[in-house]
Amino acid sequence: MGPIDPQRPNVVTHELVGEELLTVDALADAASRLDPRNVSHHLGNLPVVSPEGQARQLPLTASDVVRGLDTNGCWVMMRSLASLPEYGALLERHGRAFELALRARGEVPTGHNLVAFVAAPGATVPVHYDRNHHLLAQVRGTKTVGVGSFRDEQQQQRQLERGMFDERLNADAVPDDHEEFVLHAGEALVIPAYTFHWVTVGDEVSVALTFAVTTEATTRAVAVHTVNVQLRRLGANPSGPGNARNDEWKSRTLARARQARALTRRD
Which single residue of 20, 32, 191, 255 could bond 134 by disulfide (Cβ 3.0 to 4.6 Å)? Predict the structure, then answer.
């Protein structure tokens, strides 16, 4: 894998093309063995801006959807793929460089995950963001990935907070400042945590693998944004992550609230 800069979107190369565990048949088999809560699928004919993220699902098993991607127009996401032993070993072989790059930039990894994305030709993933750092490795086919941010700080913050609601809403607009990357098999895109992005698959079935890394900083940002949602509902105008003192207070506030809810449930 080439040199990785984990702080900005950039393309590197990888060596996963030809990996037997990442064929359509192998991933269809993996989908049948994963906890069903970690596999989701739906039709991929969504607009780039889809605020509610609602989509129609075919009445098929995830495994059957994966095998029929040539014609069914669907999109499939398989989370916690490393819970299967052979994929856990693949994560160890190929994910270490990304974690080391994050450590070199001062981030402290606290967890990692492996996510497979397989999609039909032309499928779209609307504008959204993820709460952890991603290295999106294209294994088969091509896709165009847009990444960007909103110029207005308040707009950026509002869009980030949409993703903290229980229903994890998508962005309701395309970022003002954005660029597009066309990924071919053998290329991977670094997508830093909280970076808005969207995907359009090319004219053949796409297979991609994401190495996702959670760090102390990304976890702290979740707490800050979550508390900000509540403060904004009370009429406040809170600042985003970045102020160490405020961030620590918000992290502790959320932790205490969660402890109180846990105690209430036990009672």
Answer: 191
